């Protein structure tokens, strides 16, 4: 293990990223067998997790340098699973999403990094401002290329939310007349925007979305406003004869729904539906990818869901009931990734 880490680090410093990745991959395999020191009997679980996260982080950078952001993203998720409280892990994840042009998800990763940095009492205002600028740039990039929906953020204090939502919907229609086929304001959570420390760091917002396509808008609203997130098109179990229908749904509708849902997540750190809501959305996404026979994409989304779940306790207080759900979903994700079958909490949620 020590030799692999030493050789990998040397290759990394020499910018021979292919060779470095090979050495770090070897080190990761040894680490997965329980090695964090030369004597596995002296390796604590925390030691192993920290070392594994560090190795994964190096692999992220290697694969980004090698122009393989998809592989880098996989390792960024795994790095977060091993060490979810480290803000830099989330920034690396953001960089991977950015390279893949998945700007809403990059924005969310940057937002999480910012929150973790502040919660860890990060003293550097310059660092905080830089993270927020990155977060802001990613949200702007996400919207700049979006043609199916537009958004409006409305400052929100402690007013009556129902009245404020009506006001926000009306204002949206006036400002964005091309996106009024369906308009709704997210009722489940207060949104944050990247704002510099000397500005309004605690300002909260309501998010209103408007769509060109009425059915897409209705579908997104249904997906994000139910207590348990649902993903349209999956109310019945898919059979092989429905694969073509699933592909058509994904190409014509699913991608646009996911784009809107991803953007909603880019400024919402806490979801009133529950701390696992975002991960449940990703479970739905992975399930659809499974029906489409896209195994690699499904595995990547499931790993992303695990990273999301691992981070939750570091962002908010989790009730005993939610903690039980969180651990059950984490176990379900591991079962799905390993190909194990059986009754799961996730399958029960799907039937709701």
Automatic annotation (TrEMBL):
<dbReference type="InterPro" id="IPR029161">
    <property type="entry name" value="SPATA16"/>
</dbReference>
<dbReference type="InterPro" id="IPR011990">
    <property type="entry name" value="TPR-like_helical_dom_sf"/>
</dbReference>
<protein>
    <submittedName>
        <fullName>SPT16 protein</fullName>
    </submittedName>
</protein>
<dbReference type="Pfam" id="PF15015">
    <property type="entry name" value="NYD-SP12_N"/>
</dbReference>
<dbReference type="GO" id="GO:0007283">
    <property type="term" value="P:spermatogenesis"/>
</dbReference>
<dbReference type="GO" id="GO:0005794">
    <property type="term" value="C:Golgi apparatus"/>
</dbReference>
